[in-house]
Amino acid sequence: MISNDRQYRAFEFDVVDEENKIVEGRAVVFEQPTVLFEMDGIKYYEVIDRNAFNNANMKDVVFVENHEGTPGARTRNNTLELSIRDDGLYSRADLSKSSKGPSIYSDIKNGIYDKMSFSFTVRKDSYDKATRTRKILEIDRLFDVSVVTFPAYEQTSISARSFFEAEAEKERIEMRLRDEKRRRLALKLKIEGGLE
C-alpha cells in the first residue's frame, strides 16, 4: 500500500537465473545526484549518502507487487538478500520459494513488470540551497522492494515532491522579500535624494 509517510524510488533490475526464478537489481546508487523534481524550469536533486543504510532497519524487507500484497520473497526467510556495496544497495530475490513468487516472476519474464521501486523512511537528511540538493544521510527503515506498474521515482513520490515544493516555495518567498527590500531601499533613497 502506498503510504504518505514513506518515500519511493525506482530502479532497474534483471532476470539472472530463469531456472531458479532469481532477479537482481541495484536499488540505490550512492553519491549520484539525481533530478527528483522540477518546478518552473528549476531542477531539484537528491543524493543518497554511501553510509545512509549503515544503521537502517532492514530486518524484514519484502519483495512485493506495487508495494502491497503477498510477498514473493523476504529477508526474514533469506529469499530476499540485500547487500550494501561501495556504489549502492543491491537486491537479489529468489521467487521460487513462495506461492506468489512464481506468478511475479512470470509477470516479469513476460514484460508485465519491467521496473522496480523501493519504499523507505528517512531518519536524517540535509539540504543545500545553492545546489538545490537534498542529501539523504540516514535511512530509518527499508520496507520493501517492489515490482511496479509505474515507478514512483519517475512520477516523484508524494513525500519527496512535497519536500521540494516546500523548498521551492521558500525560495520564492525569499526572492519576493529581497525584491521588496530592494524596492523599499530604492524608494527611500529616492525620497531622501529629493529632500536635499
Q: Key features?
A:
single chain, 196 residues, 7-stranded mixed β-sheet, elongated
Sequence stretches where pLDDT stays below 50 over 5 or more residues: 153-160
Number of domains: 1
- Give the strand content: 35-45%
Oligomer: single chain
Average residue-wise pLDDT: 83
* Global morphology: elongated
> What integer value in Å does the Rg equal?
22 Å
The description of the largest β-sheet is: 7 strands, mixed
Helix/strand/pairing category: alpha+beta
Name the helix and strand elements from N-terminus to C-terminus, one letter apiece. Answer: EEEEEEEEEHEEHH
Q: Helical content, roughly?
A: 25-40%
| Strand runs, count | 11
Helix count, per DSSP? 3
- Cα distance spanning the termini: 70 Å
What order do the helices and strands come in, and which of them pair?
Blueprint: E1 7-11, E2 13-17, E3 22-29, E4 34-39, E5 42-48, E6 62-65, E7 68-74, E8 80-85, E9 88-94, H1 101-109, E10 115-128, E11 133-148, H2 152-155, H3 158-195
Parallel strand pairs: 5-11, 6-11
Antiparallel strand pairs: 1-10, 2-3, 3-9, 4-5, 6-7, 8-9, 10-11
